[in-house]
């Protein structure tokens, strides 16, 4: 007798127990439940491996769909890493007023050097500047013909790296009466930041679309799996299988497809980075930079696999809740 | 054990499968359900299994009114009923053992207990030696016996059979009926739908006769 399951009846003592009666204890049921999870997990994995071509295709489709936004994100985080080095302006250019002499400029230089938020100040006197300009511009004749040096004294100020108060510093220095103009080239940095923001949005939008795509692909794959096992589902329901019991193998199938897809995505991103690594290093070398492409890393790859698994479960859940109810004994 | 109280079933397309059927089946009873095809035999079994719900009337099984069993409770209800189908309804990609084990796996039995019970059930139907076979390699009679083993493995209180001998020759049919009688003798309520009058009239059990959805005879 299996009446131990039916609390209402056994509690009331209504039901007669047969000679070989044995109720199922909670512990036994838990073990049985665990065993069915194990069984479902291994069965669905076996089914996936039994159809290697179509399974690998499904994995690749999911892998590619996940790899695209993941690769974009990796690219973006690399770009961010580069641009972080530029985030505080490397230099402020202080153009002295015409009336300020080289000696006075030198005094200002020393004052500035004493400040804690300034790392370095280079003084380029107007004569030096003219010499340099003459040499570099090729306008030597024109410049020679000038009666008077048109260039001001210049201080190149390098803030302490990481200082975020460059705007304040800029305002303070511009207010100095000896300074005609303080120029901080921030516009391009602003543009870069805007571009990065745009890139981030693109990654999000593309990621959202492709994630939805992955869920739909998996949902459809699971729907086909459900269709192909329709008879089995009917039989299981006839002998008393609950919806959770029927659902379980399909949820595991979705999970495995998702996890495999995530794994392929991580593999694709790693391959692409390996492929780009050498030329990027060469390029960085030519800029005297030691920059190396950063990858997903172990955690990033793991996250991708977990994300794939979650999407697989979601897709399977959608398919199962949509299609399993309609399969009933007739 | 099973009480039908003025039960009618009209299908959505208007066909009246059962009309005002009232009958009471006791514990330990083995009952044959007979009548022409379309007389309502299968519908009656389907109502007991909650594959269908009655249009009117009440069905009470072991003191429980089936109208109170909600959709969520249907699997639990079915686990208390063993069913044998005419077309066996076996899983053809699983071994005999796995087929018979299915109700126990669903009920959440432990691995060792499943092995013990499945072998006991297969032993009863004489198929212990074939536990590793795939159903497709078995004869029709053997497949039916696998179906019976699966129906009784969880020791249900009620055993339903829908034309269990439909495709079998007389000798095999008699064997199958003997199996049902054996289960009945250990206290299982058995309901067998069959139109094999020659066979069932020899077996001295109560016979319910349905004609066009009405119960025309409930003696035996």
UniProtKB/TrEMBL annotation, chain B:
InterPro entries hit by this protein: AAA+_ATPase, ABC_transporter-like_ATP-bd, ABC_transporter-like_CS, ABC_transpr_LolD-like, Cell_div_FtsE, P-loop_NTPase
GO-annotated molecular function: ATP binding; ATP hydrolysis activity; transmembrane transporter activity
SUPFAM superfamilies associated with the record: P-loop containing nucleoside triphosphate hydrolases
Keywords associated with the record: ATP-binding, Cell cycle, Cell division, Cell membrane, Membrane, Nucleotide-binding
Keyword Hydrolase: no
GO CC, any one term: plasma membrane
GO BP annotations, alphabetical order: cell division
Subcellular location: Cell inner membrane; Cell membrane
Quaternary structure note: Homodimer. Forms a membrane-associated complex with FtsX.
Similarity comment text for this entry: Belongs to the ABC transporter superfamily.
Function: Part of the ABC transporter FtsEX involved in cellular division. Important for assembly or stability of the septal ring.
Protein name listed in UniProt: Cell division ATP-binding protein FtsE
Source organism (scientific name): Kineobactrum sediminis
Gene transcribed to yield this protein: ftsE
């Amino acid at each position: 007798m299996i009446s131990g399951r039916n609390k209402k009846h056994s509690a009331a003592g209504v039901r007669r127990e047969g000679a070989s009666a044995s109720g199922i204890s909670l512990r036994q049921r838990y073990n049985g439940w665990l065993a069915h999870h194990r069984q479902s997990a291994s069965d669905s994995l076996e089914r996936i491996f039994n159809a290697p071509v179509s399974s690998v295709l499904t994995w690749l489709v999911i892998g590619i769909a996940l790899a695209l936004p993941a690769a974009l994100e990796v690219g973006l985080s690399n770009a961010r890493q580069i641009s972080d080095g530029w985030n505080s302006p490397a230099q402020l250019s202080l153009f002295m007023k015409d009336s300020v002499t080289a000696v006075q400029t030198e005094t200002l230089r020393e004052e500035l050097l004493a400040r804690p938020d300034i790392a370095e100040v280079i003084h380029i006197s107007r004569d030096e500047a003219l010499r340099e300009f003459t040499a570099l511009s090729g306008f030597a004749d024109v410049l020679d013909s000038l009666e008077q040096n048109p260039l001001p004294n210049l201080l190149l100020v390098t803030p302490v790296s990481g200082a975020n108060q460059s705007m304040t510093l800029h305002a303070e220095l511009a207010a100095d009466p000896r300074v005609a103009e303080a120029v901080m080239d921030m516009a391009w940095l602003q543009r870069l930041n805007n571009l990065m923001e745009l890139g981030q949005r693109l990654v999000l939008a593309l990621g959202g679309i492709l994630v939805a795509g992955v869920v739909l692909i998996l949902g459809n794959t699971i729907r086909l799996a459900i269709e192909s096992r329709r008879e089995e589902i009917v039989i299981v329901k006839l002998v008393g299988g609950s919806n959770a019991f029927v659902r379980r193998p399909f949820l595991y199938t979705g999970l495995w497809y998702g996890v495999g897809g995530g794994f392929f995505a991580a593999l694709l991103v790693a391959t692409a980075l390996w492929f780009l690594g050498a030329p990027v290093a060469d390029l960085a070398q030519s800029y005297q930079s030691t920059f190396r492409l950063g990858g997903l890393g172990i955690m990033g790859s793991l996250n991708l696999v977990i994300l794939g698994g979650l999407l697989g479960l979601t897709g399977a859940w959608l398919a199962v809740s949509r299609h399993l109810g309609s399969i009933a004994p007739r | 054990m099973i009480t039908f109280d003025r039960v009618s079933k009209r299908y959505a397309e208007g066909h009246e499968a059962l009309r005002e059927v009232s009958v009471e089946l006791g514990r330990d009873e083995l009952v044959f359900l007979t009548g022409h095809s379309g007389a309502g035999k299968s519908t009656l079994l389907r109502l007991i299994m909650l594959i269908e719900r009655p249009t009117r009337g009440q069905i009470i099984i072991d003191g429980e009114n089936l109208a109170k069993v909600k959709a969520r409770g249907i699997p639990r209800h079915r686990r208390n009923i063993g069913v044998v189908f005419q077309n066996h309804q076996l899983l053809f990609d699983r071994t005999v053992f796995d087929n018979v084990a299915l109700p126990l796996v669903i009920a959440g039995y432990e691995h060792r207990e499943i092995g013990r019970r499945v072998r006991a059930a297969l032993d009863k139907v004489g198929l212990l030696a074939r536990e590793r076979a795939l159903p497709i390699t078995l004869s029709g009679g053997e497949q039916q016996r696998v179906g019976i083993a699966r129906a009784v493995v969880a020791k249900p209180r009620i055993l339903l059979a829908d034309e269990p001998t439909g495709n079998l020759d007389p000798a095999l049919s008699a064997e199958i009926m003997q199996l049902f009688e054996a289960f009945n003798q250990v206290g299982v309520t058995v309901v067998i739908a069959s139109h094999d009058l020659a066979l069932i009239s020899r077996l001295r059990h109560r016979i319910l006769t349905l004609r066009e959805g009405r119960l025309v005879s409930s003696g035996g």
